[in-house]
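idk why but the lab printer keeps eating my pages so im just putting this in chat instead. protein + heme C:
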Amino acid sequence: MALLGRIALIAMTTLIVIAVAPVIDLIDRGIDTRRPPGRVEAFVARRLRHVAIPWKARRSTNPEPSNPEVLRDAMEHFADHCASCHGNDGKGQTEIGGNLYPKAPDMTRPETQRLSDGELFFIIKNGVRFTGMPAWGSDTAEDDRASWQLVRFIRRLPHLTSEDLEAMSRMNPISPGEMKERKETEQFLEGAEEKPPAPEKHIHKQ
Ligand code: HEC
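predcted complex ->
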């Protein structure tokens, strides 16, 4: 009984520390998102996320094959929807990803690569509450397919080549300002082509 009492006391103290630590942190540091979460907070948040994902979902296997077509579609999808936060290389070194709280993680690292396919899928489909990670899936077979394909692509992240990254940079969405600039350049080039330099006159001497 004494042992049980001691265990209960330790468990309660741990829970209080876990509950109170973020409040003290908030009072101490305010709502600043620039400083990364402390180690305890990051660890607890990750564990909580892990247990919040149903066991069955974590064990699901990827129904999508890993072939060049699937990887190409997923790469395009990633460059279009995910790279604004995660970067084309998945390292999270972007203006948005780097300033979120928590930051977008470096997905080439083992911390992400060790997650099961099912866990990655669940995160992509449902998002992560209290973070900047949005949910991407409605309950359609088409969306599920796209998310499983993205899981395939996330496995590729640590092995992307410079050619892959080059191709992705052409798939990234562009801002209205950039669009205007591109149009102007195109128009300028077309205009220049319409009026090619006058050919030199060829006079045949007899
Ligand atoms: C608005 C920014 C934003 C966008 C856009 C975004 N993410 Fe995220 N993502 C995050 C953040 C922030 C986290 C960290 C969440 C956490 O710490 O639990 C994250 C986490 C993840 C994780 C978990 C990795 C890990 O190790 O914790 C995966 C997988 C992921 N994102 C995939 C995607 C995919 C695929 C897309 C595009 C369909 C995408 N994300 C779009 C911000 C974003």
